[in-house]
Amino acid sequence: MLNALAAERARIAELEARILDPDLTFYDKNAKKLWKRALQIEIALAQERLDSYKYPVLTLPNEIVSEIFVHFLPAYPICPPLIGLLSPTTLTHICRRWREIALATPALWRAINLSGNDAPGPRYGPGFIAISVAPSFRRGRVLDMISRSRSCSLSIRMDEWDNTSKEVETAAELLRAVIPSVARWEYLTLYLDETHLPPFPAPMPLLCQLELWLGDGSPTARAAKVELPEMPLLRTVILNDAVAARNVNLPWE
């Protein structure tokens, strides 16, 4: 069937080229008009056959398409890039039907990457490309994802901010943007300089895994203890450096 469609497209292109061919001559204007009209009718019929074809993927039920979309993303709770070809937003740019399905699938928007460069790192595969975006755009995208995720539990990730005042300000702004959804946080990963760590909101009733990286243990590292709020479902804590291990008070200690 696809070969037939390709042949139809080639035929249309050929007929259109013949109509525009300046080297063709006719014995009178009426003959040229009739010839041109005949080709236009043939083009219209070929285009009608093309338009009547339904691609198999567009005949799938919305529920199946939605499930395919979910498998397009990394397995939850891994967070896909916020923007770019591997972000869930890509699925809204294909056609109107796919956009409607994507926006109606909360599971697509439940893993939110707040990272400054939208690149979770090499451990998540070579497809993640660093892309720099304006802080206001990033914040808007984060708010959109929180809204589209509806009542789903969330995976939040902030990874490796640069030690510049601009990035600190952006980090704080993005963290404030996600705070209202704290009751839905299920996985939280923060790779931050110890001076960037905000106070933890309370409570976090669904949080089951917390991962922290707070610095390199230098003499200027954070001295104050990090008090964790109520997290009744917390089962896994990953403290990736000496600063976090020394200063985080676990709820079961």
UniProtKB/TrEMBL annotation:
<protein>
    <submittedName>
        <fullName>F-box domain-containing protein</fullName>
    </submittedName>
</protein>
